[in-house]
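Throughout our pipeline, every protein is held as a single compact record rather than as scattered files. This encoding replaces a full spatial description with a residue-level series of whole-number codes. The remainder of this section carries one protein's record, kept here as part of the documentation.
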Amino acid sequence: MRIRQEDVEHVRATVRIEEVVGEHVTLRPAGVGSQKGLCPFHDERTPSFHVRPQVGRYHCFGCGEGGDVIDFLQKIDHLSFTEAVERLAARIGFQLRYEEGGGPARRDQIGGRQRLVEANRVAEQYYAGQLAEAPDAVIGRQFLAERGFDRDAAAHFGVGFAPRQGEALLRHLRGKGFTEDELVGSGLAGRGQRGLYDRFRGRLVWPIRDVVGDVVGFGARRLAEDDPIQAKYLNTPETALYKKSQVLYGVDLARRDIARTRQVVVVEGYTDVMACHLAGVPTAVATCGTAFGAEHARVVRRLLGDDAAVGQVIFTFDGDEAGQKAALRAFEEDQRFVAQTYIAVADNGMDPCELRQRHGDEAVRELVAARTPLFEFAIRATIGRFDLDTAEGRVQALRAAAPLVARIRDPSLRPEYARQLAGWLGMEVEAVQRATARAGRDGVTVRAPAAAPAPSTDPVVRIERAALQCMLQIPKDVPVADADALAADAFSVPAHRAVHDAIRSAGGIATAVTLSGGTWIATVRAQAPASVLPMIDELAVAPLPQDQSDHLGWQATSVILGVAEQALVRQRADLHGRLQRSAEADSLAILARLQETEARLREIRDRRHTA
């Protein structure tokens, strides 16, 4: 069944695109009416992803992705068009109407992804109920209590218990109308020779949510000695929802504090996240069954906004050898951040959960506050493998550590770490600096990511572009008569002329002022050939030049009259040429047109001067 078009338009116009995008990307002001952040669709360090709430569209100047709020949700969550509209309608409490009958979609017509999300949500509620009430869940309640987590803490994080029976959850979900394919597709059930079985049995279960709070999977901890599965933790397998290289436990609870404080604390386990949040470190998240990797770094960067001046990524690891290896792996990922990276390791080797249990909340906060720059930790860990009491050991340590110093992203930090390395090794600073310089020559230069295109230095191109931006973004501030009087050849740049043609075909500014911003852009796009759509998307979102809220009307009038002036200047030059080449019989008519053009040009210039 197809959703009625007027309902689609209502959803598109009502849902605020900056709120939906903001659940995935930390947005910062980028001029009046514009916001920007790190693109969620490609890897970048400098924000090139812009959102224009007034016109309901987004555009990335790095990878070219763009569209409206429905497009964004489709791409970010891999939804069909219908699924995206249904989710957005539910967000604003709007009842959609469907063609061929007019009623809401039946349950079996809801999009496949949404059904998996619903199955996980029902499973979360079931597991939580079992933890609170079931007699055989006492082992799970004891586990939490021993680590300082009461019932309120369990409820806050959605912790539950999976019954030991092999089909308890299956029976519950089947009773709710879920199919076998949905149960297997969600990762809640496995399929064996005897049929389906509960994936999680006799374990404490944590729901793993995405940034908007949808449950996409679970992590389950072994409790009983007779559990046939020896793995301490068992996670949801890879599904359409759950990608372990991309999910971070606790991100739904932490994302607002991460954006506010510009800090993220990466811990190793579910109970560590709980301990940190309860101790007053609400920016803690954890990976789920895998090491922190490139995809996790992308998620963190989007949440931070990645301001090099204030952003902080703090890794906490156990003090044992495995923890040190994990920290060094984190160092490998450091180059993916613009934010500064640190490591926090308790002197006694305890993780945040153990630290809180034995020494209280303040000890957890102090652990994070006493962080060490990750560069320092990595360099010290590297040279610690060598015997620094011998000349050979010191030389070998220098050879191993010099590439680490050379790879430090901030060039102003390299000399300082070279001096520190010299002190740790007991060597001359000049020798260490030469070694790091040699190591640096073997490095790879990273190309700066694309951002919004630099303004053209050609005044004609610049003013034409600005005029089109105003006509698309702020048509209500554009002088209607002047804009709609621009002829088909008013724009000299072919790409600009094509966009103007689409605007004229859509009814011009006289039509634009009667429509919402998003509807106006959609109307223009519908009149344009496919080759012109990227240019429309870019102009509809790009920050207005000299963006000042108090002067939008003046700005719009100035650039529209500027295009008209440039067109008249070209027309005057053409008439002068024709006059020189014309026969005497034609010269009077050309001269009359030239006088009209001169008069119109003076009028336009006077208006621009007084606008």
Notes: Residues 552-581 form the longest helix (30 residues). Residues 251-371 form a domain with the Dna Topoisomerase Vi A Subunit; Chain: A, domain 2 fold (CATH 3.40.1360.10).
